[in-house]
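WARN no homologs supplied; continuing
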Amino acid sequence: MTLKLAGPSGDWRGYLDSLAAFGMRPGLERVEALLSAFDRPQDGFRSIHIVGTNGKSSTARYAAAICAAHGLRSAAYLSPHITGYGERLQVDGRPLAAEAFGHAVLRVREAVAALPRELGETTQFETLTVAALLAMAEADVAVAAVEAGLGGRLDATNVLRAPVVVLTNIGLEHTEVLGETRAAIFAEKAAVIKGGDAVFGALEGLEPAAERVCAAAGARAHVLGRGFDVMGRPSAFGVTTERARYDGFSVPTDAAYQVTNAALALEAAELLLGRLDPTRTRQALAATAVPGRLQVVTRHPLLLADGAHNADGMRALLASLGAMEFPRPRVAVIAVMRDKAYTEMLATIAPEVDVIVCTAASEPRSLGADDLAAAAAAAPTAHALRLETEPDAHIAVRRAQELAGSAGTVVVCGSLYLLEDLADMLAAGAA
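OK structure emitted
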């Protein structure tokens, strides 16, 4: 039977939009109650749970693609989205049909109405997470790569008992919620480990903490650079695991950081499935493009879109751009969230570009374009940095293209919310 989604009762996107007003409310009580009402759909498939500061979405996409290439119906649950809510749930590499996802959202809406009042308002991310887990079960998914939203211990996704957990990296972000130190943030994220296998990316001094967490949880630790490793560049890299050596891999991007994310995904998939077929894995990675990660939009000028939204992400972006030797003039279009370390982000990118066009995203947490320009003016550079302010993101990009000319480079970065606002422009100009 076809579900009619039009009208007030079937407007699942409008319902999700309305929940944004409730913000973020860490805790598992509402999610657990909702999933119990649906007989715990998350227990019907195996999962890879992915936490960390950066690289979660890419690692989830790569892991799901590898599992799908080995004959398993696979899903990836991602956040946030760029092109729309449907992007958050990928099944076999494609967004789940809007009708199916909308049906799941509306079922969750009914269950939310029946929750005890004392549990409080259900948030947008909680609703999306329960709907995604329900939709995956209804789609007969065998394996799901599930990206955490914020932290881990109190994140809505921590209802999984995943046999494999990936912790990509740890940076200082959301310190008001997760803690003021990398060690405190690590503890919050690593709390999702409940046994099985735990795959760790660059820990930069937190390796002993990883060993302790795994010992306490009865989990096996696999640390990048110790139990497994990766070497090469996006067009040609290899991964060595405890079971095998895999060579001749590539990913369809020049983003150097994606080599690490692909290696984490491969290690996780191998731990879940056993030794992988090299040809199938090679084909899966080569075919998996990740939107908004050093995405080439146009060639003249070279227009790149990257979701770098914190200091570590900005450094990773600049490392990839440095390897590309991106042509001048170099113009950055930037919007940031006011709760990010935007001073450090600007200090990273300012020395590498000729012009910054300061703009803003539609997300309420976005820093105003004028305030961003004031912060950018204080960024240390060895050259005269030109600053322009344009609150409208679309006009900001068009202005940047004018400034770059046909031979230069435009880099749109600072926030995934900015890329969401520009989704129409980025899709229309895709190279």
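Confidence is low (pLDDT under 50) at residues 1-9.
OK
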